[in-house]
Design goal:
With about 100 residues, this protein is α+β, with helices and mostly antiparallel strands. It is built from three helices and six strands. Strands 1, 2, 3, 4, 5 and 6 form a six-stranded antiparallel β-sheet that branches.
């Protein structure tokens, strides 16, 4: 009976961790992931977030849609895709963690 209880607790913790990762707010990781990048308003998750009034240091960037690329993250490479509204700017940036 104890083994079954342990598996239930482990399953609940695993589901909770998966939900935390799935719904992790962009605002919770922005400062650590991109030092110097600031925004007036940050919305959404790390997978599909929006930065309103973004700037890097003193350089205004404007409104940006950004998110992690899940497929590349599974291969061990962190890759962020982004799209800026206004004058065209889009692309991706990434790297590996060692």
């Amino acid at each position: 009976m104890q083994k079954k209880k342990w598996w239930v607790v482990a399953g609940i913790l695993l589901v909770a961790l998966a939900l935390l990762i799935a719904f992790l707010p962009m605002s919770a990781v922005l400062r650590r992931a991109a030092p110097g990048l600031e925004a007036e308003k940050v919305e959404g998750t790390v997978w599909d977030g929006k930065l309103r009034g973004a700037k890097y240091g003193d350089i205004p960037i404007g409104d940006v849609d950004a998110g992690l690329d899940f497929g590349r993250l599974l291969s061990g490479e962190a890759s962020v895709r982004f799209k800026r509204f206004g004058p065209s700017l889009s692309g991706s940036a990434g790297g590996t963690f060692e």
